[in-house]
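ugh finaly. both done.
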Amino acid sequence: MPVREDFLASSDWLAGHLDDEHLRVLDCTVFLRARPEGGPGYLVETGEAEWLGGHIPGSIYADLHNDLSDRSSALRFMMPPAAQFETAMGSYGVGNDSKVVLYDRAGNMWAARVWWMLRAFGFDNARVLDGGWKRWTDDGHPVETGSVGRAPGRFTVVPRPRLIASRDEVLELVRSGDACIVNALNGAQFRGEVAPYGRPGRIAGSVHVPAIGDAGVVDHRTQTFGSVEEIRARFIKAGAEPDRRLIAYCGGGIAASSTAFAAVMAGFRDVAVYDASLSEWAADPTLPMETG
């Protein structure tokens, strides 16, 4: 069974290691706002202003929306080209010998997304701050304001393409049944009661392990992950098997990264994120979906 502490950093641990010269702490916050006029999709707002107003000492703001997403894609938050990711991480001071802790202010899913990206580009020495900004401040740890600079790091990518699933792979697996396809959205979205991504519902045949909430891998009250045993049991109950391929999806690859992160932490060995998720799937009426 994997060790939880290999994936998650506690606020007390981080507070005691802020002076480590190899440590890099990244604030990964993004906010999704409802459209004032209604309609599908969300408005995206970076968390940089909040970071400037108060952050973990020494942390750098990692701009997922602009620096760490494919600028050529019509879809938001898609995996960037390797060279772009390499440059961005280097600019944040992250090098091949760094120890990285990631946090956000929105239930860990943005931090988990950057964790997944780092892993997909061959970097394994990263952890998510359990409980994120909420836990850090609730525990009374220090906060600083204003801009922080870091000397550039030398970051080299080693892509692991199997960690990112494409539409074609997902469609093939829907037809064959050779993988467990996991929806990481909330219950209303899974059942098709609301449709923020166009067509309502879920990828046909997919099961439900949400990223956050009462049935989620993250407790929405504390913003901490459940135990490895609890998370593992939740996936197995949904139909996942430790040695069978598992593909997590959501609306645009963010909540899915949190669910995928939890699956890896719980010992599932062949896990991927469907990067474009329902932003791509629901827009194509030829791709199978179901509700209820």
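ok and the 2nd:
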Amino acid sequence: MRPPRARTWGRVGCTPVVRVRCRGSGRVSMAGMACYKAGHRSRMIYGFRVHRGRKGERKTFTWQDYRDLILRARAQLGGPVVLVSDNLSTHLMPPMKEFIAANEEWLTVFQLPSYAPDLNPQEGI
């Protein structure tokens, strides 16, 4: 991320120089879903978390944050959700698995394999 651009006025021919201090303002974690629905435009549903380095502040997403993102996607899309998930440890936690099992009438989850060289065209088979 880049610092905001500072602007000011100056005499004609003399470009003013303004210092912009870019102190560490924290860390941003983002999770998103690319959503597709037949007959509609694709959309991106996302959530982010800002960590400013305060004591006790969580840096990363919890399983509740991912659950809320899935529920937001269902509310915005207005129908069943098919989710392709990777092997992030938060996605594999028991409470998340319980949430998926409790909502299997509208939520279908496909778990990607942990390693699949046949899906990577760059690797020689």
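summary for the 2nd one i guess: Strands lie at 27-35, 43-51, 81-85, 107-111.
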